[in-house]
Structures are given as structure tokens and as C-alpha cells.
Write a structure and sequence with these properties.
By secondary structure, this protein is α/β, with parallel strands linked by helices. Helix content is 31%, strand content 22%.
Length: 202
């Protein structure tokens, strides 16, 4: 691990994501810096898949800072909604979207749908790029569960309060940070990405 870059820019200004990623990289001697701290604006997410958007964001941050960059793109796919909100998860409720508005819209969309039909999964693609290099490293993660009928818990962010983790019987917002990193889509994708980075620099 000593060959890993000492600093990596995170292509996000989302405090929740930064905390999760910093925790996962803790102990590796890597300092994670949010792109917002370096004056880098968010990239325009024009991709139609999580992989495309993750790569767009990572390349944007690497080009703007000259530093290695990690990005992730993730979202919630609800089976009864044909995979929606999907890549539009963060802006599901429109231009002025917020976590609460997105959750409200999702609960309305699932009104009248019960039991196993409320199945869903979080998906994540994490990407690492070196500035000036075209070959990225990508890893994926999935976290299957179902959508609750009302919010539970006050931790996490995004759709966590209405996503039921079947292993614990609790919402993602009721899990500890360690529990969430162990089983979440982002935790799985980033752990996979760290392994790929380690192999790449070994």
C-alpha cells in the first residue's frame, strides 16, 4: 500500500459520501480531499449509466486538479418502478430536489404497492483515474433490500431512511457507520476499488 498516492481528490462535495469514503480509506495513508475544497465545481452528469457518470466525474476532478481522483455514481433502483429513479436518484423530485422531496415522491409512487413488490437495490460504480491517463479502474457494488412505507431513523443520507436492510431488519438510516460500510453498495464498490488500486500500484 505504500505505493498508493498520498492524496486523492474526491469528485464530490457531498459531506456524507466524503465521510464514508474517508472511513474506508482510513489507515492506508491516503488523504482524501473534496474537490470543493480545491475550488472544483461539479461535473455535468450527462451519462445514462452509473459507470458513465462516475467516469465523467473522476476525469473532471483529475483534469481540474492534476491529482488522482476517485468518483462514484450511485442510485436507487426500485423494481416496481422499472428501475427508477436510477441515475436520476439525486434529482428525482426535480430541479430543486432534496433528500426529503425525493423520498416523498418515491413513497407516493409506491402507494398501494405492498410486500415483496417493494423490492429495490442501491447500485454504485466507483472509479479511480490518474491525471493524463485514459485507462480507469472501476468497481461495482449492489445492496438489495426493499422500500419502507415511512421513514425510520435519522442517520445516513439520501434514501437511507426508507431503505430496509433485510439482514438487520433496520433501515439504512438506523445502521452504524461500520454496519453500513460493511454491506452498502458504496462500501462494496470502494472496497473493490481499493483492491484494484493496490494491484495497479504493486
Amino acid at each position: 500500500m505504500s505505493d498508493l498516492p498520498p492524496k486523492i481528490v474526491m469528485a464530490s462535495g457531498n459531506a456524507g459520501k466524503l465521510r464514508e469514503i474517508s472511513r474506508l480509506l482510513d489507515g492506508l495513508g491516503i488523504v482524501v480531499i473534496a474537490q470543493s475544497e480545491l475550488g472544483v465545481d461539479d461535473a455535468e452528469e450527462t451519462g445514462t449509466t452509473f459507470a458513465e457518470n462516475s467516469l465523467i466525474k473522476a476525469r473532471h476532478a483529475a483534469a481540474a486538479t492534476g491529482m488522482p481522483a476517485i468518483a462514484d455514481d450511485s442510485g436507487l433502483a426500485v423494481d416496481a418502478l422499472d428501475g427508477a429513479p436510477g441515475v436520476y436518484s439525486a434529482r428525482y423530485s426535480g430541479r430543486d430536489a432534496s433528500d426529503d422531496k425525493n423520498i416523498d415522491k418515491l413513497l407516493v409512487a409506491l402507494r398501494g404497492i405492498a410486500g415483496p413488490a417493494r423490492s429495490a437495490a442501491f447500485h454504485c460504480v466507483a472509479t479511480f483515474v490518474m491525471p493524463g491517463q485514459s485507462a480507469p479502474l472501476l468497481a461495482e457494488g449492489e445492496w438489495r433490500g426493499s422500500i419502507l412505507t415511512a421513514r425510520q431513523g435519522d442517520g445516513g443520507f439520501g434514501y437511507d431512511p426508507v431503505f430496509l436492510d433485510p439482514r438487520s431488519g433496520r433501515s439504512a438510516a438506523e445502521l452504524t457507520a461500520e454496519e453500513k460500510n460493511e454491506r452498502s453498495h458504496r462500501g462494496k464498490a470502494l472496497k473493490g476499488l481499493v483492491k484494484l488500486i493496490d494491484q495497479h500500484f504493486s
